[in-house]
Amino acid sequence: MTLKAFSQGRPKNPLPPVEDPPQLALSISVSEESAKMEGKEGKIEAFLAQARKTLAPYCRHIVHNRYFQLAMFVALLLALFLPDMWVITNRPNNSDLDVLLTLVGVMFIFELLVQSIGMYKSYLYSFFFWMDLCGAGSLLLDLSYVMQSDQEVGTETVSNNAIIMRAARVAKLGARAGRFTKLAKLLRFLPGMGNVDDGAGTAKLISSKLITALSTRTSCLIILLVIIMPLFNLWAYPEEDWSPNSFVKILEACYVRYPSRFSLQLDELTAFYAQKSYQPWRISARDDVQPPVQVAAALPRTFPALTPLRMSNNMVFVGNYLKVEFNFASPNQLDAWMNVVLLLLVMVLMITFSLILSQSVSNIVLKPLEQLLTQVRQMASTIFQSVTDMEVVMKEDAHDDRSDQEESVEDTNKFGNETQLLAKVVQKLAVISEITMNKPVLDAQTLQNLAEGDRAVISGFQGTTQDTEFADRGEEVENVLDMEAIELAQRAMVENAGLSMDLLDSWNINPLELDKARNHVAAMYFCSSHNHGVEFDSVVMGNFLSDAESGYVKSAPYHNWFHAVDCTHAVWRLLGLCAADVYLNREERYAVLVSAVCHDIGHPGLNNGFLIETSHELALRYNDKSPLENMHCSRMFELVGQARCNIFSTLSKTQYHEVRKVCVEAILHTDNAQHFSMIKDVQMLYEVSADIWDASRQLFLQEDDPSLAQEAVDALRVPDNRKLMVNLILHTSDISNSMKPFRISRIWAWQVLEEFFLQGDAEARIGVPVQALNDRNTVNRPFSQVGFIEFLVSPLIFAAMRILPATEHLAVQMLMNARSWQKQWENEGKVPPSDHDKKLLNERIIKMENKFRSCQAGKSAPEKLDR
């Protein structure tokens, strides 16, 4: 089976076409028409969306322009006060008022459209959208060409007309109150309700949102009270001044019964209204009535001084015979003044209560919360070194999102940096806690669920970690060497030995297939000064390599000189591919290369478990703590202690102590007991600075420039992280056989299994329990290699590829090898596995492949794995 990276295209239908019946053809034509209609609608929607996207920046610029805001504020004041001012100043008509209010209405509609386009995400269908729509619509009630202003009341229906008059007054008041909704937008200019910067703390943002919510609701409550309270008197018995109706009735009674006294009665009544704020200015007979002679002589009676300038002030009362017109200018002016006072009162109430709420919220919420979140911010800053970077990223994200927001009081999705930072800290702590405390890489439950062969693979690999100090010596001045000349000389040496540089620069080299001379030359090239910058005597290095080769046990099938050369080659390759020169100093790179040469020197072909079980001299000497690794370190520095092999003689005392620490630390971490703790350390390094690693991944993978991003370089230059990288590179190289091409990987697998079997033979001879993986009669070789890859190699390389993306191709090759081992297990076993067993193993490999995909941060699809 092959792991597919990309989906394949569907094959064409191989069947020949068939003619459609008429009904089917008709349905197809209808479907095509509907599809065309839907396509047109989709194009229209796409066009509108594109137009809105194009116009949105310009609309936002207009909305935030201070001159536009000033113009809209003036328009709002005109809409609120102009109708009443026209009444107070007793303007003859509303023609000029209609023009002004029409212009104001156009401005309101323009503002509504501009805000809907520019801030469609935060404004459209929001609270302020409906308030602006209501305020703009209320202007219609003040336009004379929309609302009829002439008023004529009949004496027969005085009660009903009073109710109608009151309803008209309520409607007029509602027009003013409707514009209060736009006045609520002025609240944002009050203290605590203005625009809050993106960098403001959580407490300020919450306080601003809370003040805005409370103030707008308080303002709406005041407005609703102004509108609703008068409605309760609408259906009550009208308490009206009925004197105009009485005036008409008395005159008509005199008109009918005593025509001769009509003129006198008229004088008495007009004298009565001389003390009133409203007075009759014209009394006339109805057009359809022929009055008596005495009445006709007195009518029409007109008082020019009382003639109303505004026709809206002319109140007409019509009886059976007479028509009396009253000038209500003074009451209407008083009513207009009261409207103005009411407007001002509502404005004062809105602003006053908003300020009170602002102060209360500040004292109750802002100050205590600000102190609390300041402490949270300080604590978070001490938890992670990457907190500052996280904060910068959040500010940049918030700045990008701000273009879609009108103002902070309308943004319901953004909270302060402390809250976001705390959420990230908690999330990261949870991940780190899960890595370090919750569960080991392979816990008891996992082991219990594994088959006997799988448990044998990981037997003896768990152990405890040891802490060692690693001081940062700082940057040293590099020796002035002619690196180009050294490299040319080394390449000439390699070519003269019959080796190809293309072979050395690949993962296809196999020291088992090279003779002694070529392995020596290869090791000499890997340790050359041009690879690290530390000067040494080439003769001394040659002696060191020769004596190191002699120190390896030739009878060991796996842990021999060929494995040392193979490991050194892997270290050299990883140092170059992973750009180690930008975060490891020259002494560290030199130390890890030399450590690779001697990391298994003197290995007897028996593991630590056997040495401890049999109370071997090495186990007694090193108190059962990594006896083999301690012995390798000791043998290496015994070798260096000889003058003819002292490859560290050119180093200063400080440099030598640093190199010794690096060598000891790196070799001790090749103990498989350190394997799972190293995986956790690498996982924690990634989780603590995940943003850095993900951001620098693409730069790190560029073949033409493999240097890391600066943030990643700074993170890796931390002393503890440098120590971890050295240990990781050497340990990964030590177990890199499973990540080589399958032909080479298979050869090394046979070698290591043969060494296990020889130990199993020894265990059987001396009567100690034979470890399951060491029994040559029961171990299934291909199956054991799948388990080795699954439980030991893959967790390490998957963790490493997140920090060192250049190792990704090793994981790809490892998964390809797992599939090859699976195929060999299915086809070459003595007893063919059952379908159930095949399915289980296939699921295990698929799980590894899925894990690989999840670790490929920054890629849309995993690499294609050929099997």
Automatic annotation (TrEMBL):
It is a multi-pass membrane protein. Belongs to the cyclic nucleotide phosphodiesterase family. It is an enzyme of class 3 (hydrolase). Residues 473-828 form the PDEase domain. SUPFAM superfamilies: HD-domain/PDEase-like. It holds the Pfam family PDEase_I. The chain crosses the membrane at residues 67-87, 99-117, 123-141, 218-237, 336-357. The keyword Hydrolase applies. It is found in: Membrane. This is Phosphodiesterase. Keywords: Hydrolase, Membrane, Metal-binding, Transmembrane, Transmembrane helix. It comes from the Eukaryota.
